[in-house]
Amino acid sequence: IAYCGQPCQDICRAIELLEKLQRSGEVPPQKLQALQRVLQSEFCNAVREVYEHVYETVDISSSPEVRANATAKATVAAFAASEGHSHPRVVELPKTDEGLGFNIMGGKEQNSPIYISRIIPGGIADRHGGLKRGDQLLSVNGVVGMEFNFRLSYYTPPVKLQVFFLNKVLFGFSHAKYK
User: Fold this and answer.
1) Residue 70, CB half-sphere, CA atoms under 13 Å: how many?
2) SS in 3 state form for the chain?
3) pLDDT at 127 over 90
4) For residue 121, what pLDDT is reported?
């Protein structure tokens, strides 16, 4: 079982409350479902993991509230360090016989998000310039999650990739295992 600290417990509790609100019918279901998707998203999970990692490593001999406040500020600073690359973006690549010009890692087999592991020098992705090594692949032509099929014959040109960049610090944290 993975380590689950206070942020994880808070997220789980928020999801429970959302489900209770959903059953009550007091709030439009679309709004609750949208909020639930955010709380269960890879991004929210990455924020929680960074927060928990920083919380465990911060050396403050003070109250839990002071430690939590310092951790929250450090977590925000870590995300701010990725300056402008922290928002999902869409990269359109033309479909050619030479492929898209990048390699990936992760996916269902590794129970991990899919990341761009290499941009092939001189390839389509390299010439386009929109992808970076470390980009997390969020969707391909609107197909979300780890359900992508990377056989080019499945997609009509252009191939639209929705990606999200985690800077080196965040990329390392998102692969850390907690006990």
Assistant:
1) 15
2) CCCCCHHHHHHHHHHHHHHHHHHHCCCCHHHHHHHHHHHCCHHHHHHHHHHHHHHHHCCCCCCHHHHHHHHHHHHHHHHHCCCCCCCCEEEEECCCCCCCCEEEEEEHHHCEEEEEEEECCCCHHHHHCCCCCCEEEEEECCEECCCCCCCHHHCCCCEEEEEEECCHHHHHHCCCCCC
3) yes
4) 95
CA–CA dist 52, 54 (Å, integer): 5
- C-alpha R_g of the chain: 19
The dihedrals phi and psi of 20, each to the nearest 5 degrees, come to -65, -45
With CA atoms as reference, report the closest residue to 107 among 122, 121, 117, 119: 117
* pTM of the full structure: 0.47
Question: Within 10 Å of residue 163's Cβ, how many Cβ atoms?
Answer: 22
Tell me what the pLDDT averaged over the chain comes to. Answer: 74
Res. 170 pLDDT band, cuts 50 70 90? very low
